[in-house]
Amino acid sequence: MSLVVDAAGWAHHLVTLAVAAGFAGWHWWFVVAHPQWCERRTWTMVGYFAGVLAFAAVLVTRSDAFQVFVPACYVLAFVALPGWWTYIGVLAVNLPVLLVTGMDLGSVLINIGVVTPLAALFGTMVRAMEREAIRRRETNSELVAMAAENTRLQELLVAKAKDAGVAHERARLAREIHDTVAQGLTGIVTQLEAIGEVSAQARGRLDTARNLARTSLDEVRRSIDALRPGPLLQARLCDAVREAVSAWTDQYEVSARFSVTGEPVPAHSEVEVTLLRATQETLSNVGRHAEARRVDVTLSYMEDLIVLDVRDDGIGFNAASAGGFGLTALRQRVAALAGTVEVESSPAAGTAVSVTVPSIRAGT
Fold first, then answer.
1. What ranges make up the beta strands (E) of 211-362?
2. pTM of the predicted model, to two decimals?
3. 102 near 79, Cβ under 8 Å?
4. Average pLDDT, the chain
């Protein structure tokens, strides 16, 4: 526009173009090349805006066409200056115009009394809408993250419930087989062995029946064993717990010590399964939440009880609010055996979980 409307010579136009190019480079360096400066370097951007006004003043004095650019300086004030500096910048935008129009009272009143307040009002409205858009975007991001976390927790709960249901059903089947078929076959063997003198032919048939009953009883016992958890198939309870502690140590890289007190005795499959699951659930909670540096696991065999103690030196928590899904399921499982689960903890004082179940011997 300056090249078209101004009648000045080419020397004048070349100087004007050089100033405009310098203005473009100034703006590119401070805003385009370093957009992060607008939020982090207040004084740098104050210097930038002072340069903007200086370039604008020079251009306006060289050509009236550059007065068209002056309203853009209001926008740049809101882009480059933070907080109350913005409104100081908006007020300072009047300086290039006043250089051209002079200190005419009417021009001063129009620019400072009308144009500047309107520019400040529109800029404030845009900035408020921008903040609201950012707030809504952050809120939406939080909601999406919460939905994803809820989905993950729901999947975890479903998986835990499924595993618990499968384990419970396997244990129920084992109990049913043990209490019905196995006990019945044991009774048959006992009755057959109690028969006194009979004929040779009858004795042969009794021996055959007794052998069949014993073979069937062995098969039933193998079926019951097959329903037990994997670590308990070929190992005693204390060995299975020791393996669980060792695997947990490898996974979380936290020092864990396992010890056994008393004389280990074979326990009923449901008792062993419950104590093994209690070990796994408690150690899992320690690994995910406790931030512990050391864990002690003790399995104590007493005359009528088996006690599992898991202690850590982690951050602890308010024991009164302990009610997670895993702990609730553990309490229910232990309660089904007439046992108890006790949790002792407080913030910054570690946690101790004690699981006590009756010592029901295997085969009973």
1. 255-261, 294-301, 305-312, 340-345, 351-358
2. 0.42
3. no
4. 79
